[in-house]
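FAQ: What does a ligand-bound record look like?

Like this one, built around zinc ion:
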Amino acid sequence: MSTTPPANPLAAMAADLTPKRAISYIRVSTKGQAARGDAAEGFSIPAQREANKNKAAALGAFIVKEFIDRGESARNAKRPELQKMLAYITEHNDIDYVIVHKLDRLARNRADDVDINRVLEQHNVRLVSTSENIDQTPGGMLLHGIMSSIAEFYSRNLAAEVSKGMSEKAKHGGTIGKAPLGYVNKQGKNEHGKRHSWVEVDPVRGPLIAEAFREYATDTWTAKHLTEHLTARGLTQPATSRYPERPMTQSRLIDVLHNPYYRGVVSYQGVEYPGRHQALVDDETWYKVQTVLSAHYNGERRRVHHHHLKTTVCCGQCGSRLIIQNTKNKRGVVYPYFVCSYRQRQRDGCRFKAVLIDEVEARVAELYRTIRITPAQRKRIAALAQRELERIYASRAEHGRQLEQQSRSLLRKRQKLLDAHYADAIPLDLLKQEQDQIAAQLASIEQQRAALSLESHVVQTHLGYVLDLLEDCFRLYMQATPSMKKLLNGVFFTAVAINPQDDASGVSRTATAHL
Ligand SMILES: [Zn+2]
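The answer part, i.e. the structure of the complex:
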């Protein structure tokens, strides 16, 4: 194995055709778990072995050696098999993967982590986990950024022309489609007589939307009361081609509060670009609103109404949007279905038959079995993701420096206050009040700094993990969280038609799937 590109293309091809070599590493923390494998303790040895074997097969690798650490639970215990494994990797220098059940099976503390990663890196070994959801891992948040850049890669290289155009538009800060509530679409000719379009703040609704964000950020409103308040202040939903002007609803307000467009960005396929439109809310307030929202709405309700497939699927009979309808059976169990929004309004208008969402989901997942990513594509994606990572590190470093500065100036302020108090310039109660405020600000800065200090090699490890998953899109899709699924669907399909007519035509073949 070599890190430099091979000069001989034949040798490179031979390397591609050679099966990959994997090591299976298994660890159980207690003697009991080794045999039983209670859910509380984790998986037994046979279960981990089986999972690792399947993962190897999925990667096109065979397991050349297995290492098992049994009942090594003490923190300071040197796990003998782990040491042997690292020695084996160093000695043979021909291992492609180390497969573990969970990443934390391998490293339990930072010192371990550093050592292990150094050996793996030196010998070009990729660490693979059989069980983890990407978002459950510490690097999950950052990975979302990486996945977005992968999405961007696809939108540039594989998706249909139309989505290419949309992505270009978003990249230049243009608004795609209809402007959100609080803005209006404008069209006209420029001085050269060329037609162009732009987005302006709605003079009535715009200020009310800004007020909605400011008020909700204070965490003193329920969505219902805020909706009533804004309605009383004159906020309405504008007329569309289908509906006349109508009152604001609570769910519409919640959608508004979730939308990053209002802080001046446009999103396309999970990637955010600085928008050309005017922001109605500053970043700080917008993020505060997200915190309040997630505290209030963490449940099923939003998930059901915002199912990740909703943006991907459409009626295969008439092309309308599909909407979600819950049907209760006799025993009171609720089943969510997709129904055609047009048929909903006009019974004879469309012959779409309601489909269980689970069924649609399973069949969309099946589509992923047919997607193949070539090694060359993977390489380009890896380079792209690496760039994205570096960008993230750079911005984190900058953020860290800012926090450091803030913290220093707060400490100076605290000292000054104390000095003033000693000089009898300020009374005790005022001193106390100011000090409490400073302490709270310092605590918040400390928290942010802790969040920034995520070890970069942990992220690197997880990046490798995502790239491995890309080689198996079906698995990637199955392990993805709903938001990631939505992102992936947006990358691979422009629309998935459900219940298609026999003569379904006029849709782009490359990007549309029929189920
Ligand atoms: Zn329909």
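Follow-up question: can I read anything off the structure? Yes, for example: The first strand starts at residue 20 and ends at 28.
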